[in-house]
Amino acid sequence: MINPAVINRFRMKRLAQLSLLALSLGAAAMAAAELKIAVLDTQRALVSSEEAKALLEQAQSELKKEEEEVNALGAEIQALQEKLQTDGEVMSPTEQRKAQKDIEDKRIDYEFLVNKLQKALQDRRQDLLQVMVPKVDAVLKDLIELEGYDLIMERANLRYVNPKHDITRRVTEKLNQKRDAPSS
Fold it and tell me: CA dist 15 to 8, 39, 48, 183, Å?
């Protein structure tokens, strides 16, 4: 299965390349007709939408137990390290080795839990993208038809953009409208 984030990055790079090509080729044509260009920060539009916020909040609440478990284990490791530092001089070599082994075992468990939590977070982000990207595409299609844009560029690929060309807020508003609209 191909990672949607990789596909999106490829699409964005390809869009930037095509945009530059279109701008280069269209320079002569621009004398005759002006291109209608828009700029979009897709990631900001997504995470600013009400549906994405709700999905992220749901994911955070579902992973709260695992996060608390990771934090508790981290605090336990810290406490064991502090105890070893303060009491290490009065401990026998056997007790010191046992304490160091306990710390090391807990570190291994901690790293495993952290990796597991990061994987779960990454999976939730992927799920969010799979739900939201088609909705953003539909909103963009509507805006293209409504406004007659010739070119929509990703904000991350540009150094400067006049704010009048940025349609990020409009995309977010349309996503929220589509979410609030009754399904037919």
Answer: 10, 12, 23, 32
pLDDT digits (tens, 9 = 90+) for 117-169: 999 999 998 998 898 999 999 999 999 999 999 999 999 988 998 899 999 99
Report yes or no: 102 and 58 within 8 Å, Cβ to Cβ: no
Overall size of the chain counted in residues = 184
CB 27, CB 168: distance < 8 Å: no
User: What is the signed CA dihedral for 103, 109, 110, 113, rounded to 10 degrees?
Assistant: -170
Q: Is the pLDDT of residue 7 over 90?
A: no
pLDDT tops 70 at residue 18? no
**109: which residues sit within 8 A by CB, 6+ positions away?**
73
**CA geometry: angle at 175 spanning 61 and 42, to 5°?**
85
Whole-model pTM over 0.70: no
